[in-house]
Design goal:
about 140 residues; four-stranded antiparallel sheet; binds 2'-deoxyadenosine-5'-diphosphate; binds magnesium ion
Length: about 140
Amino acid sequence: MVERTLAIIKPDAVRRNLIGEIITAITHAGFRIVGMKFVHMTKEQAEHFYEIHRGRSFFEELTRFMSSGPVVVLALEKERAVEDFRALIGATDPAEALPGTIRHRFGTSKGENAIHGSDSLENAAREIAFFFSQTELLDHSP
Ligand code: DAT
Ligand code: MG
């Protein structure tokens, strides 16, 4: 089934000028970009986006980091997009991510791991709607 998922090129990767290389890896893996924007989230927006992690030990560090600079947000489309994109990015901790994955190539720590990918179809829909209105996505109905 063709699915959509949400990717975020995180502030560490943007600061290190890796936007182009990461988008190349994503498109070479067969994902079609159906929405894209450059965003600098406020702390409050980052807290809202990561609401499911509120109360976890890393929540403060995570939301401070995600609001520390601009990010590139991408809505991606592909057969089995959610599962395949998680495989492309690799494990949360870059030290545990398989060689060739985006986090292995570009992440530097468990917190600063270069990229986000939705973990389920349900969360993908919520996360895409968090950043994009219908008219900002390709192939929307008029
Ligand atoms: P993932 O992004 O692989 O889905 P997650 O949903 O468990 O991982 O956590 C969201 C983000 O929070 C993760 O990409 C990086 C950060 N994070 C998770 N666990 C952490 C930890 N133990 N220390 C620091 N940051 C952490
Ligand atoms: Mg997650």
